[in-house]
Amino acid sequence: MLKAVLVLVATAIAGFAGYVAMQPPGYTVTRQATIAAPPAVIYPHIANLKRWDDWSPWAKKDPNAKVQFSGPESGVGSKFTWSGNSDVGAGAMTIVESTPDQRVAIKLDLTAPIEGTSDVVLALQPEGGGRTSVRWSIAGQQGFIDRAFCTLLGIDLDEMIGTDYEKGLANLKNVVEAAPRADANRG
To answer: pTM of this prediction?
Structure first.
């Protein structure tokens, strides 16, 4: 009987390991929103990491997180590090590419609760009529242990990250659309 139970357990473990090994190691999560403003109005909100506090969904999850900024005020080399509660963890974001009114690319290094590096991009695409499509995406790799952990806990990265991205884009939309614009005040 014990031998049968051990064979069953070993088979289940091997089956689980095989299933996890077959899961793709790469992940990409993307969300998009349309904002009633031209790219030039939106760009400063994404290229200056200090302004993320106005719209980032994570800023609201832990308003007491310890944060530090370094490098230039905005654009390439601008860096934001944080350490907060279990909802926000700890890590750093560094702008690695910044094309005015078009795109900001960020290297995201998480150190807690898990370690990992991902590539984040916020891309702006004019839609006409003073509207802009904002696409926020993240891409990275997961090792076997990370994939096993997500599988065991039923974590869907697209849902987990995507939900926060949707909140962030909605916040960004509210911030940008509520702000008075110099071009609207010209006579």
So the answer is: 0.84
